[in-house]
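Morning, I've got a small favour to ask if you have a moment. It would help a lot if you went through both lines with me. I owe you a coffee for this, so here goes:
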Amino acid sequence: MKKPTTVEALETLGRVRLSKSFFMRDFLFSDTATIHGIQNIPDNPDLAIEVGKHLCEELLEPLNATFGRIAIRSAYRSCAVNQKGNEEHENCAKNESNYAGHIWDRVDADGLKGATACVVIPWFADKYAAGSDWRSLAWWVHDHLPYSELQFFPTLAAFNISWHERPKRKIYSYIDPKGYLVNNDETKGSHAEMYGGFPTFRQQ
């Protein structure tokens, strides 16, 4: 598929179904793109679709099935959008750091593919607002899903969740206690005692 240059072509891309519950259109909105008037359209739609399917099928669908509807806060970013976000200090890393991350249609420095989305789980956001520890959700994801990286943020306990060809198995948080909870999966075994009362895991 070529990069869309017409409304019709962009609508066609948006209708591509990535998994049971998600379409490509769900991942193309960007606050940075909207405010700064920049197109958030993949240069390589086929690669964006390929990695988006992995992200949705392997990570987002199980979250959606287990916890109820999840909200997409930030997902695909074009190089132009991500660069602008970095220049404006809008919580975007440099482009090279985001290849195979938020920039789905570029491979990383090792030539590997990946994709990232920032999501909120309303079910957990309510628990977090009532005082639940963000680490309970982090350990649940760690024990149940083949993620590559997680990054947790204070607002609504939103978190980046990444799929990657070579999973890094890292969890970092900007919520206290800040820093790495898991780094290169050195933590083994189940952590079920950390997330008692969570819904039963559902794959789809």
Observations:
- The mean pLDDT is 95.
- The two ends are 28 Å apart (CA to CA).
- The first strand starts at residue 71 and ends at 74.
- DSSP finds seven helices and six strands in the chain.
